[in-house]
Amino acid sequence: MREEKLSILAVQETHLNAERSKTLRDLFGEYLSLHSFVINKRRMTDTEALLLKIPWTSGRKLTILNVYAPNAAGENAEFWQTVKERLQGGVDIILGDFNIVEDEVDRLPTRRDPVRPVEELRKLCRDMRVTDGWRSVNLNQRAFTLDRIYATRQIRRDASVWKITESGVPTDHKMIAVSIANRAEPYRGRGRWSLPLFLLEDPEMVAQMKELAAVMSERNPQTVYREFKRKLRIAAREKAKEKVPKIQRRLDGLRRDLTQTLNSEASGGMQSRENVSRRLRGRSSEYGEHQ
């Protein structure tokens, strides 16, 4: 959450036990609320939907529904019917593991999911007036993931940087993320500068830190320490400027290669991306008419 600068993380199928949950709360309880949006298979049913409401702006609350839908087609369809029946009022965001995709373009190999669960999900989305946010801004790309974020038009208008990334833990799922701006929130600066942790493993940076510390004189310890921190900050920033672009360029290159591979035309029997994009645009317009 720190690396991705996430305020809210919705998780599913965590397989946490009581001991592990306690350990996480002991470690991070002061900074994180670990109970509102954790779906624990050992303490709940195999499928679940949790609703979170948080203060947002002008007396308004942001309502987020986190879902973990069943795998079986019949149970999946019934799940969306149950969610629709139990929801009191609307939601701003529906996200989680849907265990189905709306379009065959997001399956590898390409195939259609059963009609009934897909139609029940679409009915829920129409009633809640939400649309797949990542898909709405990436009409021509393929996303082989069962995890998605659906959002209302108002939320999508304030949203940016929709992305699908690796989660950082061993899993066959991807992490879907989005940044949503609270336009009424006071401006916040970058905050206090801190030394990038990866520099602590850089031999050249460690040697330079030792050099700076070695030349500290016998003067007032407070002024000496202040000067040491000033020089260290300058050295660390210069080193970070040198290393980060190299790492970022390599990551960007790998992501481009992956995107090109996933969106390759070499997929026998698949509809053209132009046809899929046309259908997706039509669905976005259809949902938009209800908002």
Give the SSE map.
Blueprint (H helix, E strand, L loop, with lengths): L17 H11 L19 E10 L2 E9 L4 H14 L6 E5 L17 H14 L2 E2 H5 L9 E5 L1 H5 L1 E8 L7 E7 L22 H12 L6 H42 L10 H16 L3
Parallel strand pairs: 2-3
Antiparallel strand pairs: 1-2, 3-5, 4-5, 6-7
Secondary-structure element string = HEEHEHEHEHEEHHH
Largest sheet: spatial strand order: 1-2-3-5-4
Question: With helices defined by DSSP (H or I, 4 residues minimum), what is the helix count?
Answer: 8
Profile the largest sheet: 5 strands, mixed
Which whole number gives the mean pLDDT?
76
- Broad structural category: alpha+beta
* Global shape: elongated
Number of strands: 7
Distance between the termini: 32 Å
Beta-strand percentage?
15-25%
CA-based gyration radius: 24 Å
| Helix amount | 40-55%
**Unreliable runs, pLDDT <50, ≥5 residues?**
38-46, 265-272
Description:
- The protein has 291 residues and is α+β, with helices and mostly antiparallel strands.
- It contains eight helices and seven strands; from the N terminus they run H-E-E-H-E-H-E-H-E-H-E-E-H-H-H.
- A five-stranded mixed β-sheet has the order 1-2-3-5-4. It has a two-stranded antiparallel sheet with strand order 6-7.
- Helix 2 (73-86) links the parallel strand 2 (60-68) and strand 3.
- It is elongated and about 75 Å long.
- The model is unreliable at 38-46 and 265-272 (pLDDT under 50).
Please outline what is shown here:
By secondary structure, this protein is α+β, with helices and mostly antiparallel strands.
